[in-house]
Amino acid sequence: MPYHEFECSKVIPERKEHAVDKEPGEDLTSCLPKGYLNTIPGSISERGCAYCGAKHVIGTPMKDVLHVSHGPVGCTYDTWQTKRYISDADNFQLKYTFATDVKEKHIVFGAEKMLKENIHQAFDAFPEIKRMTIYQTCATALIGDDIGAIADEVMEERPDVDIFVCNSPGFAGPSQSGGHHKINIAWVNQKVGTFEPEITSDYVINYVGEYNIQGDQEVMQDFFRRMGIQVLSTFTGNGTYDELRGMHRAHLNVLECARSAEYICNELRVRYGIPRLDIDGFGFEALGNSLRKIGLFFGIEDRAQAIIDEETAKWKPQLDWYKERLQGKRVCLWPGGSKLWHWAHAIEAEMGVKVVSLYTKFGHQGDMEKGIARCSEGTLAIDDPNELESLEAMELLKPHVIFTGKRPGEVAKKVGVPYLNAHAYHNGPYKGFEGWVRFARDIYNAIYSPIHQLSELDISKDEIPGNHGFVTRRMLSDADLSDEIRNAPHLSEYDGKFDCLAALKDKTYPEFPRRVAAAE
Amino acid sequence: MDDLTQDRIGQLIDYIMKNCLWQFHSRAWDRTRQNENIVGMTTKILCGEPVEAETPFDKCYWVDAVCLADAYRARHPWLTEMNADGIKTLMTGLLERLEYLTVTGSLNAELTDQHY
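Predict the joint structure of the above. Result:
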């Protein structure tokens, strides 16, 4: 096994099996780090907890819900607004978060009474909201508060409300991934099948594992609507509580993030006979294939092809403008879970960059299998890295940019490496054809920002150049390009709008006659 | 297996590994089911034989098979020059290799974890 031993982690020998170099000739049977294990004591992990995974990744993107944490206020406050999963409900779920603010006396005497009061107060404060999720935390799990019983009491007293209880305290798994699993199973056990949705199309899907980061879901939903497909529910970005109770009526589960949501797809397959189709919303080729597959499934592949042709013609020249300027740039692809495999091959093939390292904070070995399969030789793959390992990797690999979360991202900036936010994005959405160009634009801007030339100067010892003016990105990026490429008339910079979602809000979609209606 | 066949299987596997997700379901039995169905249907499509996809589950295998066959034809012109027997032999080798990489030789400890 081509393990990679970090100098900084020699004092934690178990860490050696969590990093590998994909060398020539290696494949998945000889090159795979350990994964999804408890973090090794002494290694300061960048992971989140199982409560965070359940609430802040999967639960909270639901847009018409009061999201309540039953625990110390810090559990909610410290994780509030860390994501950019927007919604078309005026971002209610981002603006408001609720916690029962458990204190020492509640640990001693119990917090159920206080929880019930909090639930009523929240519903009273927002009388137009009739749905609630309640999340268990470590403290209230350890004292044995029965949230389900309290929720049942409230639903009896307030018949117009519905409450979902998620029992995923922080310690319920090695990382946030444990929480993903728990909330998937809890939702299908408690809520799926308890609401009958209106079916308006012959082609009905659940869009699963999509969290509407900066509008990704709205972009994909636009494609589906143009194809005449009804998105019955989205699990869970921009999704509504009742739509998600009606998941059992879909004809197909379209799965985007298999890391966080394959569990519910597998359960829906077994319990309701709904098949699962894995797709990729990132990258022209992957997205085109995904739309085409969904089209083929329903026998409407011509509608998918029309979208692919139109979008590719419009956006490919702009993508290629950036590709010419990003050739060979070294990238550390250090996201949380699924993006290491969503992006590993697509950014190399379509943007010309070279992935020199990939890591995952909470991914399982299955995610590493996908990532290592998709990256090229010479890539360093790391499971659950600590901060020192990240620093050592950056020193070794000298990346031009890293894609990661904001905590490790800020560390990178301090050593002069620009970063893009892989979780919440910089200027997303990144899904869709236009979104992929926006991602390329963000990479370009990060790598060629003139600020790096200035920020890397140490005014205490470096000579500050005063004999030339400020340079622009374009001057830096085009310096080594041939005239043919620099002046290519068919290539152009991104010319989309700052808010590319605005046009979708009032958009009208073609009406396709239903087969069922025709038969009647 | 001769070098040419081995090289061609390597090219076909490389496409699956870099562009597909269906071979990486979470359990060993699940992966085998995916591999056998999708590679089996792809073989039939490449050989010009009819494929039955009556159930929704079969349709899911079929759509992945159609896309895979199209990608193979577009990227590997030598496929169109092979006869049906040659394609079947090649695809049998591909399935064996894929099963080895994703199931029997996989280092993923979760594939057979009863508590996963």
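The mean pLDDT of chain B is 96.
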